[in-house]
Sequence to fold (949 residues):
Amino acid sequence: MEKLVVVGNGMAGVGCVEQILKHAPKFEITVFGEETHVNYNRILLSSVLAGEKAADDIVLNSLEWYQKNQIELRLGVRITDIDVAGKTVAGDDGSVTAFDKLLIATGSNPLIPPMEGVEKDGVYVFRNLDDTRALLDRVGKGVRAVVVGGGLLGLEAARGLQVHGCEVTVVHLMDTLMERQLDFTGGGYLKTKMECLGIKVLMEKSTTAILGNEKVEGVAFKDGSTIEAEIVVIAAGIRPNVELARKAGLQVNRGIVVSDFLETSLPDIFAIGECAEHKGVCYGLVAPLLEQGKVLAATITGNQGPCYEGSVTAAKLKIMGVDVFSAGDFSESAPGTDAVRYEDAALGVYKKLTLRDGKLAGAILVGDTSDSHRYMEWLRTQADLTPQRRQLLFPAPAEDAELDVAEMPDTKVVCGCMGVTKGAIIEAILQKGMNTLAQLKECTRASTGCGSCTEHCQQLLKAVVPEFQEESEKVLCKCVPFGEEKLRDILRSQRLRSVQEVLDIYGNGHGCEVCKPALSYMMDMLWCGDHDEDRSARFINDRVHANIQKDGTFSVVPRMRGGVTSAKELRRIADVAEKYNVPMVKITGSQRIDLLGVKKSDLPKIWADLGMPSGQAYTKGVRMVKTCVGTDFCRFGVQDSTRAGIELERRLEHLYTPHKVKMGAVGCPRNCAEATVKDIGLIGQDGTWQVVVGGAAGKKVRKADLLITVESTEEALQAATLFFQYYRENANYLERTYDFVERVSIGKVRRDTVYAPLAVQQGLRYRLRQSKRLARDAWLEGDEPRHPTQFVQIEPLEKVNQ
Amino acid sequence: MKATKRWVQITSVESIPLREGRSVQVGEHEVAIFNLGDRFLAVGNRCPHRGGPLAEGIVSGATVVCPLHAWKVSLETGSVVSAPNAPNCVEAFHTCVKDGFIFLEMPLASKAKEESSSACVDQERPASWFESSAVVQDNPDLKNIGV
Fold:
């Protein structure tokens, strides 16, 4: 068997080896890697820096993969010489390895512009996993960082540093950010977006020196100005790593010169990826090197097919919330080039297409990259766009799309992952009455794999169900324009623990009455109460733990678990009502007592006098469990609903929820406490409990769905609390259980809670316990206010007599 | 010319938490004062819609959202932002900070009645008016009251 030696264990080298393995086994393969890691996805290093991914998440080929394919992997070895005549390579570990075919995939090195002081402690490049780890060790709140270079990598690095709390300044030599991918206007839009994130951007600044003694203290520029910094990251570009090839006598310009079949100037030696130069171009992006890999794999295994003709390059900035896409050639200077533009400064959207001879030559998208696939397709196919000339910048009209699905035969597979045909989907819609995407997913499993057929499924729904409305991802609000699920991901992965931090980094910096309470809830839920509670982001009710009334007074509802009270409690309530001249005392619809018309400054005194915990009647939280009289006195009761209800209330009280949670427990199917129209209901039967969820008797009336039927009271309580925590973690803010259960379907709720694997159930219980551990009766703040003037009416220091 | 306004010492800066408001009764004026971090802003406390207490609202940039029906009021001008054509607005008061205390510029009693209706005219005042310390130094009234 012939020996193939690959120098370089990166995406190009290993990507090509993967392609070679697809042909018949032909080689004994040895791969040398200078880094000590298996092949990983270098493009995602910025995600690792930003904390969105762990180092393990970006591994492309595990050690097992190398073993399984009998590839000898030599990590931490740098190849120093190629003996072209003797057909061997020498490593810096003293090894000499013979080859029949040699593949050079040495990639590139960071380009360090000439400047003084790059050896100082605190100067980094951002090229590999070790660089990333080193940076992660240094980042932190308030650390000042300067990123030299406003290209793709520099901007992603800047964002990564910033999410860890660094104060980041990007310094760019040119007058446009990402000038290789964007024109001046597009670069301007991008700059505004970066600045909105809180990253400072300095343009046309040439860095001349890094200041400081041993450690970095700042950066100096050609114009004489300086800025202070503790970290400097140089991301000024890359240079093909060609030293080895040059030494061996291969033809080298900027990169190693290769033919259309990736052959170098010497026989049996090939080059690929960032170190290779094809028709004068060195590519620095991932798509070209994979395309090169395919051609080379065919060539080297004796299956030579089509030659490599160069790649259409496309780049996408990977910064959450900053959508930038660029492909092809966007310059307008070539004769016969037409430019088509769209721009909306207020929305921050800029799109430009360049056309040559009616075909797409390049595309720039800033602020809205939803059409990037279409433009890539046009670039690749070089389709004649003349007929569509008026619709180039807008999505294809909907009629066309519907026509497509209508013409599709019933046997055609719509969802390739799950093997669902168009016929099966139509049947589900017509026969089983599925009319939302969620129901369709649940019923047929279509679009539950990769999700790429979602659009087709929606089109089918639209075509068949007249009242179907497309589910677009609803953003929380314009201050933080992300969907809530995404936001929960962001908060979790970026370890954000205060509302203001989220607004500063992912939003417009100030937030509003919609997003602030929603983010406050997410914080509380995700960190189980262990976070920086920012009261200013809460609605007034949650600042003073009482319900604001139309005249600015408040109402007070003490907790009365299960609606059971005592003569002593009632006497105290009566005393409070008299002592504080409470204008109205009312029985609520939830078996509790409401004291209405209370002044804010009286709240702490009233709470102290009552000596009862908060009933949370003012908040999106656990309200109460309404109960019937159960077995103690009722002649029909078959389960002790009163005690079950009190226990349920005790287990969940003082917690926040996406919307209010009202519960009920009844001792027999007569349902006197109306448990079937509660968010969570326990319905006692002879020998069993039914646990029902998602009921409503408010703005909407809905009969609750059965979650599970169990035998013991403890099992019923366990099932109820599982659902409770699941709702807390997965519902959108202000989504009641009845909308939540309908949205995700009761089948999924069951699968994810009472029928979930034990570990999942334990997870839910654990997080509920954590939250409960830190949850306090809010009224205890009466004695220990969060702020000295929380309940106090401020009097002016100076009297004004008027 | 007789001065029509004067500076009144209200409370220490610590009394108002960051991004929250507190109300205070100054003579016949009920004023809501807000701490925006870099400055304090003050407007009449009663929402022009149904009289909701603005001091209890959520602060959103330089506006406050009334806790009753979510009308949004500019803290710089006192005008209603959420309904741009709303005829009503609340009065905006100048603030300044000196030695850790917040001061409000209040109309003098005799003039107060006449002037309250003219508050809307003032909507276009530049925000820089409110940047406080300079106002303190240059304000003769303030010196007169011995601050």
Observations:
- The mean pLDDT of chain B is 78.
- The first strand of chain B starts at residue 5 and ends at 12.
- The domain at 5-144 of chain B is CATH 2.102.10.10 (Rieske Iron-sulfur Protein).
- The first helix of chain B runs from residue 109 to 116.
